[in-house]
Amino acid sequence: MSVLNSWDSWKNFLGDRLHQAEDKGMHNEAVTDLAYQIGDYLAKEVDPKNDQEKVLADLWSVATPEEQHAIASMMVKLVQNNGTR
């Protein structure tokens, strides 16, 4: 099963990656920029697999780049307490 099939699995996956980046010394601004790049890739290349991802894809599609950065930043905040840490 792909981590994209379940919203909770997706958040845990992202939380794990966030904690790994933080452990390696990546700064919050770099993490948020990477989240923006990943969000942009997913919006363009990956079909949403659940209702939450569909909402995010719809929001991303109508957002300005500045708003997309805000969405990415909020996703980072959302997953900070997720993962297996």
TrEMBL record:
Pfam families xrefs: DUF3243
InterPro entries: DUF3243, Uncharacterised_YmfJ, YmfJ/YflH_sf
Name of the protein described by the UniProt record: Uncharacterized protein DUF3243
Organism: Falsibacillus pallidus
